[in-house]
């Protein structure tokens, strides 16, 4: 086993971005990759952009290394591609297996990433070439690769099991809501938001970022807190509902969320005041459950205006049944929260386990 520099075992090709007028989606030229956003777990995602002007080429089997934040992310190219200046291609020589080098570089990626407590905001070709590590003979590299492939595949399976558990519990919550809505004994009656709440949109005051004064008051937008400012315009229990933004379609985050106390809200969220805490809670649950695409205008810039918001029928049960519904749903959500927290802990544990295995298997110096 010998101590080597990366330049001893591979050639580094720094990326160079073509002129943007050569980019296209008609598959003319070579697929173009320029950063981590195009990375998969280990292999590049399918291309979304091509370029007619080819600057620097990465070949199938080359390692692609992110040289800008997040520095150190690594993937393998599956075909010949053009690479921009956010990437460097690493082409191995005959004395090292590309999969072994993939694991070597994966083991140092956290130490390079400026976003994770970092030492690099970017990294140069020379710095990549100077990375040093212990290189075993090829036969031993193959054994190490097989062991790491098997171990990480098992870890990946465990992570998927945990993710599926959260998905199952989330689907269970939806089924609970559906069963409640189908129960005719609850005497459901459709109401509209302007009948059961007061709209306070006219009191909203957006503040441009340059004019915000740092303070303790949460400043809300379409999907939650975006800043903290001085002063306040509301001091109450309110329900905010997204007025615009891609999240209205993607539903990556709740589109309805309750807030309390002093707050400042910009014009990207509707502001509703309810007389009944239970009805507010149910409306929040229902809107986050219900598909409201028919009330949203514009796909490029989705918007749920006040008029359309007030056209959404909200099924309301009799008061005694509503308490029963809320209690059941709150208990289910608490269970999901526990499972979600457990998933985060497990995910961190799995990631730490992978890092530990890499460190114990490979000896790296930067």
Automatic annotation (TrEMBL):
Family annotation (CDD domains): RMtype1_S_Aco12261I-TRD2-CR2, RMtype1_S_CloLW9ORF3270P-TRD1-CR1_like
Residues covered by the Type I restriction modification DNA specificity domain: 4-157, 187-337
EC main group: hydrolase
Enzyme Commission numbers on file: 3.1.21.3
GO molecular function annotation: DNA binding; type I site-specific deoxyribonuclease activity
InterPro entries named among the record's database cross-references: Restrct_endonuc_typeI_TRD, Restrct_endonuc_typeI_TRD_sf, Type-I_RE_S_subunit
GO biological process: DNA restriction-modification system
Domain of life: Bacteria
A Pfam family assignment: Methylase_S
Keywords: DNA-binding, Hydrolase, Restriction system
UniProt similarity note: Belongs to the type-I restriction system S methylase family.
Assembly and oligomerization: The methyltransferase is composed of M and S polypeptides.
Protein name in the entry: Type I restriction-modification system
Organism: Prochlorococcus marinus str. MIT 9302
Upper lineage: Bacteria, Bacillati, Cyanobacteriota, Cyanophyceae, Synechococcales
